[in-house]
């Protein structure tokens, strides 16, 4: 599936993608958050979550990307993306990148515990282009 156009509706704070040969995918919201720590010393405080809510036709869907917090530092160390320098947290970006690269993903929750797989999301990433596409959501 190929994304062929993207347009914005700033009045409704949303962005939309037209998928080649398919319906329009309207991005409704993007949320980044730290995974709340669980009881009993759970390692949950070492994870981040990126959530994108979107609409295809009349159906509203949510896609969640959860990843190890250390990957944010790794991206900066590798010169791929430095959230401190750019001002947009990785947890605001990850789910939209995953959705763009996998628009037909059937699962709604995706977990990255492998740095290489997570870094691949950012292979062609440009913060300038991302801000241009999703400025109404940030």
Layout of helices and strands:
Layout: E1 3-9, E2 14-19, E3 24-34, E4 47-56, E5 59-68, H1 70-77, H2 83-86, H3 90-101, E6 109-112, H4 115-120, H5 127-134
Parallel strand pairs: 5-6
Antiparallel strand pairs: 1-2, 2-3, 3-4, 4-5
Largest sheet: 6 strands, mixed
* Arithmetic mean of pLDDT: 83
Which structural class do the helices and strands define? alpha+beta
Task: Work out the count of structural domains.
Answer: 1
Helix content: 25-40%
> Overall 3D geometry?
globular
Q: Gist?
A:
The protein is about 30% helix and about 35% strand. With about 140 residues, it is of the alpha+beta class.
Key descriptive features of the protein:
single chain, about 140 residues, alpha+beta, 5 helices, disordered N terminus
Explain what you see:
This protein is an alpha+beta fold. It has one domain (3-34, 45-131). It is 28% helix and 35% strand. The protein is built from five helices and six strands. It has helices at residues 70-77, 83-86, 90-101, 115-120, 127-134; strands spanning 3-9, 14-19, 24-34, 47-56, 59-68, 109-112. Strands 1-2-3-4-5-6 form a six-stranded mixed β-sheet. A hairpin with a 2-residue loop joins strand 4 and strand 5 (59-68). It is globular, with a radius of gyration of 15 Å. It starts with a strand and ends with a helix. 24% of the residues are buried.
């Amino acid at each position: 599936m190929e994304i062929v156009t993207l347009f914005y509706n700033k009045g409704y704070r949303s962005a939309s993608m037209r998928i080649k040969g398919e319906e329009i995918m309207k991005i409704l919201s993007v949320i980044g958050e730290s995974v709340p720590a669980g009881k009993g010393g759970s390692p949950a405080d070492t994870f981040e979550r990126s959530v994108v809510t979107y609409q295809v036709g009349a159906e509203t869907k949510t896609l969640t990307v959860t990843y190890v917090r250390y990957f944010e530092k790794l991206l900066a160390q590798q010169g791929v993306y430095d959230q401190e320098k750019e001002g947009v947290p990785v947890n605001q970006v990850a789910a939209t990148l995953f959705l763009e690269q996998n628009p037909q993903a059937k699962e709604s929750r995706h977990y990255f515990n492998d740095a290489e797989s997570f870094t691949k999301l950012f292979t062609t990433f440009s913060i300038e282009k991302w801000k241009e596409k999703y400025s109404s959501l940030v």
